[in-house]
Structures are given as C-alpha cells and as structure tokens.
Design goal:
This protein has 155 residues and is mainly α. The protein contains nine helices and no strands. It has helices spanning 2-5, 20-33, 41-47, 50-56, 59-69, 76-100, 113-119, 124-127, 131-140. It is globular, with a radius of gyration of 18 Å.
Length: 155
C-alpha cells in the first residue's frame, strides 16, 4: 500500500498528456518495466489457444484502460495512483496479505485512512519518482541516503 501511495510506478513519461490509446500503452509499458505484467499481447498467441483468444478478445485490455479512465482525470500520474489504490492494491496486496495470514502475523502500516486521505491531497509532482517519500526519509534519517542503492532499470 505504501508503494502505491508514494508513487511506486510514477516515472517521467507520466508527466504528459496523451490520446487515450497512447495513454493506455504508456501505462502498460510502465507495468511491464516494473515487472507487474509478465507477458504482452504478442505472446498471448503462444500462450493461449485461438478459440480462447477469440472468446476473450480485447476484454482484458479494455478493462485495464477502463480502470485508468474511471479516475475521471486526464493526467496519467493521477490515473495511475487511482488505479493502483483501487485495483492493484486490493487485488494483489490485500489478497496476498490474506493468504499469508494463515502462516504469519501481517501488519499493514500504510493502511490508515488518515494517511491515505493526506496522500490523495499531495500534488502529483511530489509523487513522481517517489520524491516526497525519499525527502521525508532523508530528513528523518540523514544517514540513510549515504547507503548505496541500485538504480532501477526503468529510470
């Protein structure tokens, strides 16, 4: 939850306006580069039968695009924050926590309504490249930025 709230998937190419088709491609490209999707449409021909692909059609990608557009805003960064908080976190994070709870005590420190309300008021530019969270940690823990961190491939 914390990564979604603090701009996990917001990179520079979200700081632009695109037509709806290109916008969906930008979102998909980001999900692929972050490892959130592990196949693409071209690979579906190898993974799925023709009959199944014809029956499903473009329903998965249409639902994906609709999830972004439900945010009601044009700015891709805000679409992504909305999508992550309403789709990715409940489906992946929350369900994953429920599965893990059968074996371990799980804490969700960022699942706090007041914190979420605050994050939704933060201007999108502060979410990009996790600027706000990096700054907050650097000021709170001044020695932490001195630790070497690997750069992600997508930046």
């Amino acid at each position: 939850m914390g990564d979604a709230m603090m701009g996990f998937s917001l990179t520079r190419h979200f700081w632009a306006d695109y037509d709806p088709e290109t916008a969906c491609e930008v979102h998909l490209q980001a999900h692929h580069s972050l490892g959130c999707l592990n196949y693409n449409q071209a690979e579906q021909k190898q993974l799925l039968t023709d009959a199944f692909r014809q029956r499903v059609g473009s329903a998965v990608y249409d639902a994906y695009q609709a999830g972004m557009l439900r945010s009601g805003v044009k700015q891709l960064g805000n679409q992504r924050l909305y999508f992550d908080l309403t789709q990715r976190v409940p489906r992946m994070t929350i369900n994953g926590v429920e599965v893990v709870r059968i074996r371990a005590i799980v804490r969700l420190p960022f699942c706090d309504n007041d914190l979420l309300d605050f994050v939704l008021t933060v201007p999108p530019g502060l979410h990009f490249e996790r600027h706000l969270i990096k700054t907050a940690f650097a000021r709170t823990y001044p020695k932490l930025p001195k630790l070497p961190l690997p750069r992600p491939d997508y930046q």
